[in-house]
Give the backbone structure.
Amino acid sequence: MIKVMIADDQELIRESLKIVLNMNPDMKVVSVAENGSKVMRVLEKNKPDIILMDVRMPHIDGVACTRLIKEKYPNIKIIILTTFDDDEYVYNALKYGASGYLLKGVSVAELSNAVRTVINGGAMINVNIITKVVKLFSKMAQSNFSITVTENGIAELTRTEKKVICYVGRGCSNKEIAMNLNLSEGTVRNNLSSVLSKLELRDRTQLAIWAVQTGISNKLEHDIQDGQNVFKEKI
């Protein structure tokens, strides 16, 4: 059972989300909060698997709350849910560790699937802002928010894992990666999990930022055929 927390300053939205998510047999809304301060108090006693987090809340907004949660409870997943398609919010939410960013206009099915995707280690970003997020990865890669990995981890990567990294850095979904590499989505997920383990990265977002920082995401697939050479050139 996936334990969900809903954080939103509008009671109607909190209760509506609670009703629709509880209709899923594999989900249960275990708590709600109207602001970031309440979120932090609730987490001291009741820790969910995932939080649906509104951006604009009083006392502590959703972005600042995301940062606090990931520092204190790194295993809790967070999906930013908002009506605002705002560059700065996307940038900071992802930077602080949110696993997803969805606009509130998504369907119930899309929201439910997003929760499942994130719980299973994936990232969920609304298709309307994919291009923007890829640009934000580049911005993050050029800032002081740097991602580092060990050389040993890089050396252990397989050729397929390197290809998966390239596509993650371009903002591709698992389905798109599977189509491009002629693999099943399950194989892509397994390769992604292996990559995160070898590079000791927290999630797909960190991997994407690292891919942009190293320049590997700009390489075309045929450039990877020489195996280790691509990484030796870029790192």
Q: What stands out?
A: The first helix runs from residue 11 to 22. The beta strands are 2-7, 27-33, 50-53, 77-82, 100-103, 124-125. Residues 220-235 have pLDDT under 50 and may be disordered. The chain has twelve helices and six strands.
